[in-house]
Amino acid sequence: MMYDYLIVGAGISGCVIAERVANILNKKVLIIDSRNHIGGNCYDYLDENGILVHKYGPHIFHTKSKLVFDYISKFTEWEVYFHRVLANVDGIDIPVPFNFDAIYKVFPPKLANEIESKLLEKYSYGQKIPILELRKSSDPLLKFLYEYIYEKIFLNYTIKQWHLSPDEIDESITGRIPVYLSRDDRYFQDKYQAMPKDGYTAIFNKMIAHPNIELKLNMRLSDIENEISYDKLIYTGKIDEFFDYKYGELPYRSLDFKLEVYEIEFYQKVAQNNFPNNFDFTRITEFKHFYKRKINNNTIVAKEYPTQHIIGQNEAYYPIINNENKILYDKYINEAKQLENVYFIGRLAEYMYYNMDETFLSALKLFDILKENNVTH
Ligand code: FAD
Ligand code: UDP
Question: How close is the Cα of 41 to the center of ligand 1, in Å?
């Protein structure tokens, strides 16, 4: 068989390229995935109680990009949803990111008031301060606050998640959850944040429902590459795997998800409860909270147990971004640049800690390049 494009991976990256090149460039596409479903890590399914379960952990859509939001809106309607996370600290549930409400929850009123005043003397209301930034403060009260948050929220969670302390991982990772000088208790402040009305898998089904697109599941690149011909290859898997790990493995963290069903209406107050200091799991997600629809009196939760990624045994979920691994990645990407008509795109191929919107954006940018090349050839 002859295709214009062979796309490896039917996650966001693969589906965006498939949809764009089929619809806009009228190209013939084969998209394959080694899993038995599309959607990559965004895959969701309805369980026996009618609850949309995110198989690979909670996926909350949020973006500042109108371009991305408008693009996805071609394939779905949305339900308003603001994600709220509570961390259990010394038996008390406090909002994460740590904010003014959290200060009043954990400290006696007089001390909380002093800390609030001190923060507003130094910073402005609404400012977001990464924890490793707050550490630089020389004021004793702010130092005390930093030590509290670092120890109670970040240290043990990060050790569980990354097997490293917050100082040993890239600052941008803990910087995702800055201290927020506000009473806004939402996890994200982006203009667009919502849940797709029928879930994520429904979006990908719509995206690739095109006569020019053929899908083959349970199929790896190595199963098919010698049997078909194609002009261009879009690769969204691990870049080190593509090159047979010739420079060594790019490290990742993985997760074990333990699902538990309960015959109660709700298990917890919000969709996500974090447990920085207790247990071996980091967080519990209750999927029922994502949508307002009425569901029967059962609920399902997922507990996340971080673990080392081992090839062939579990999935590569989180790239471990640091200088050493960036250098290793550069060796692969430099080799990739020598290849003609092969493009590496997505969280695994770019070795980036991309949120969904960033993955969409990166794929849409690649499409612009493919389109440009198509015109000039
Ligand atoms: P993937 O989704 O990983 O898709 C790659 C696909 O390629 C996979 O289906 C894989 O099976 C297939 N593949 C790989 N190698 C091969 C091969 N050799 N042959 C055939 N097939 C292959 N983002 C948010 O915005 N909000 C969130 O709340 C959020 N939560 C997340 C929670 C977790 C636990 C994780 C891991 C990620 C989360 N993300 C979230 C990020 C989001 O999942 C990613 O941005 C997105 O899934 C990346 O899409 P992708 O297509 O690049 O990669
Ligand atoms: N983090 C933490 N405690 C928390 C929440 C987050 O220490 O209660 C740190 C941890 O290192 C985590 C990082 O902040 O890996 C990013 O958190 P985020 O919720 O963005 O992670 P993701 O949803 O991508 O797993």
Answer: 4
Instruction: Give residue 96 CA to ligand 2 midpoint distance, Å.
Output: 10
Sequence-distant (≥ 6) Cβ neighbours of residue 244 within 8 angstroms: none
Atom of ligand 1 nearest to the CA of 318: 36
Domain ranges of the chain: 2-38+208-250+320-376, 45-83+189-196+252-319, 85-180
Homologous superfamily of domain range 2-38+208-250+320-376: NAD(P)-binding Rossmann-like Domain (3.40.50.720)
| 130-171 confidence digits (pLDDT tens) | 999 999 999 999 999 999 999 999 999 999 999 999 999 999
Phi-psi category of 26—alpha, beta or left, where left has phi over 0 and alpha has psi -120 to 50?
left
Beta bridge partners of 87: 94, 274
Return the amino acid letter for 323.
Answer: N
| Predicted TM-score (pTM) above 0.90 | yes
Ligand 2 center from residue 181 Cα (angstroms): 18
Q: Whose CA is nearest to atom 7 of ligand 2?
A: 154
